[in-house]
Each structure stands twice: as structure tokens, then as C-alpha cells.
Design goal:
The chain has 181 residues and is mainly alpha-helical. The chain has 7 helices and 2 strands; from the N terminus they run αααααββαα.
Length: 181
Amino acid sequence: MRSKSDNPVPGGAAAAGSAANASSDLESFDPVFLLLRFLPYSFLRPPRTRLRLPSSVALPSPMTVFSLLLLTYFAVVSGLVYDVIVEPPGIGSTQDPATGTVRPIVFLPGRVNGQYIIEGLSSGFMFLLGGFGLIFLDLAVDRHRARSVRLSFALFGISAVLIAYVMSMLFIRIKIPGYLW
């Protein structure tokens, strides 16, 4: 059974236009890419499977899926896998040469491939803050919302993106002294 996009459209300008677009797309490809794109499908056919969920299983809500993806993204960008494997300390410490007192440090200076746990979590939070800012900027352009709501979404989105950018640049400058100066 062919999908709806594979069914031929009988005559007309729409069919001629789509055929012209398809032929122009095919002519612009690299010949090796064309060969790799069409050769396997000349003798291989995907199986016709009709998978259905049992009636007792309900799909999760879009907000649940978004929350799980956001949590996974935070875990990945904050270096949770690195923290589990290497087991770095939460924060570090350094001794002040003038007074001899021990001061805590959050960022591991000079080592790009190493981090403290708090350093990774704070960087991951800044990436999430920037992402939320972009989401709120997207919500701010919705014409079906009240003007005051759109304005507050836009202000929060712009401020979140700016804070995330400035703090991420500050983190990089603390991590690598003299970088981008």
C-alpha cells in the first residue's frame, strides 16, 4: 500500500509543478549522493508493518514528553554522564597566597575538559534559561493573546536570552582566562 504522497495526482498544473520541482531537486544533487540515495531502494523494500498500541496504553501528554526531553537535555548539557563516570568534587578550593585562607571555587580554571559538579549544573541551567527565553519569544508573537501578555512574554524572553548569554560568556571567561579578549 502506497502512502498518500506516493499516489499519482491525475494531470493538472499541480502535478506539472510538483514534477518540475522534483526533477530540479534531482538534477542539483551530487551524483554519488543520488546513487547512495536510490540504489539500496531499488532492491530493498521496507516491511509493511501495522503497529498499534494496545487499547489499555495511553499516549503521554505533550507536556509530559516536553518535560522528559527537557530533563534529558539538562542532564546531557550539564555533564551528568561525566559527573557519574569521573566523580569530581562538588566544588573546589584554593589557598589565598597572601592571607593563607582557603577559598571555595566553583569553576575549574584552565581545564576545558574537566569540571566541578556545580559548574556543570550552573552551565546547564544557563542553557535551559536561554531555551526558555526562546520559547517565550515564540509565544510573544501569537496574535491571539492579549497585548500585555505578549509584551510580558517578550520582555521575559529577551531578558532570559540576554542573561543566559552574558552568564555563559562569563563562565567561559572564568574557565579560560583571556579567551575572546
